[in-house]
Write a structure and sequence with these properties.
homodimer; 237 residues; alpha+beta; Nucleoside Triphosphate Pyrophosphohydrolase; Arc Repressor Mutant, subunit A; 2 domains; 3-stranded antiparallel beta sheet; 10 strands; DNA-binding
Amino acid sequence: MKNKAAEPTKDTFKHFFNGAFSVDIVLIAYLDGSLKFLLQKKQDYPLVNEWGLPGDLILPEQDTDKAIDELLIKNIGHSDVFKSNLRAFSELNRHPLGRIITIAFYGLISFDKVPNKLPENFKWANLEANYELTLDHNHILEEAKKKFKENLIQKPVVFNLLPEKFIISDLIKIYELAFDKKVDVANFRKRIVSSKMIRSTGEFKQRYKSHGRPAEYYTYEGPTKKKSEKESILFNF
Amino acid sequence: MKNKAAEPTKDTFKHFFNGAFSVDIVLIAYLDGSLKFLLQKKQDYPLVNEWGLPGDLILPEQDTDKAIDELLIKNIGHSDVFKSNLRAFSELNRHPLGRIITIAFYGLISFDKVPNKLPENFKWANLEANYELTLDHNHILEEAKKKFKENLIQKPVVFNLLPEKFIISDLIKIYELAFDKKVDVANFRKRIVSSKMIRSTGEFKQRYKSHGRPAEYYTYEGPTKKKSEKESILFNF
DNA sequence: ACAAAAGTGTTCTGATTACACCCATGC
DNA sequence: GCATGGGTGTAATCAGAACACTTTTGT
């Protein structure tokens, strides 16, 4: 017992510290009547000219959230988006440079905050299109889409895709696109209005080159003040 | 243009490869009529004698899923549990040894698979108790509990806490414990039986030292075959 | 016989569905 | 006037909440 090895120190653990981290983001927007996500053409070795999710290697001393913000600021000019930590992707051989675990985020940006011009190596792609992305980015994209859809029905995240003032038909359109299903407009409208989550502004959308009654602008008021707070709980699957 | 720097190589990225990874798991069980989670007293420098979630540093060449399985096998004798990738925890100064990003899992183990004897430095703790855990493990625990509860109402994960054959009152008890609310037994029962998710076995639980009508054992049949598959979609918040 | 736990039935209410109808505008 | 998109009303149905009641056991 007295003959035990030397006390461990930080140095004892050196061999654990040979891994790298990166961040990637699936940034979703509602643009031109369809759902899109942001793509980046990689320019650095070893992925030159491959398309993938916006992302970067980070240094061990870099914070992941800040790294995402910096990435966004650099490329779309600001980081004013809704961000949610998706999960880590850690498959052993996911990256040719060595063991890199990536922290994936999914984000939502409202269309009024989408810049008119993107850097040359960025583009918006249709969320439903099939792209061959680099590394495991198709996998990350799928998981993000899954979480996005779950969130859409469970939490008021839609509003992050829309400006302060929006029209209900855009709200509905997003659901129809995301789930590829029709929405009963009358019932959707009644439910969302009666929930008090949105409030009418009295302003109306002027229409150009189309007719029909002008749509009223609504604005998001925050989550529902739980109406009833059920006494008994029950599963729902 | 011709004067550009040398082509980058793997070596160019060396400075990114100074980070470490770990895995941690919040393993939940339904034991002795309450919900518990597994705790480990750390024995290695620099966390000696601090209690935290079961977990370990992993080498850059180790797979995270395998690492969790090995951890479980070593300490509870098998890895036959339901596991779900929670997310990565990456705060800059979460670990005294340096930048270590941990991949957190949450897991569910059925009480018939819980070993009678645990290693000395492991114990089951009440899920609702307040412990001072090492590092950011309280934070990880909270996120795991949140996801556990979400899952309970959204997906048929409860069955992972119960043996092949179980009685409905245990099923209900888990919900009551997790949400600290009463469940209307009659309605719960009707809903779960009519869902065809569980099937009665014809076997009954013999009771010792208590009276009351014997409970029938049920068994899980798999997820509901979507009864109606709604035409129109609607949010639910 | 009675207490305790398991399991069933019935009523009432309110949410959800389906769909018909009305409104405001451009051409 | 009529086509188009926005917006409201209503009747029928169905799922959920509440709770009383029956069954089977131990003591």
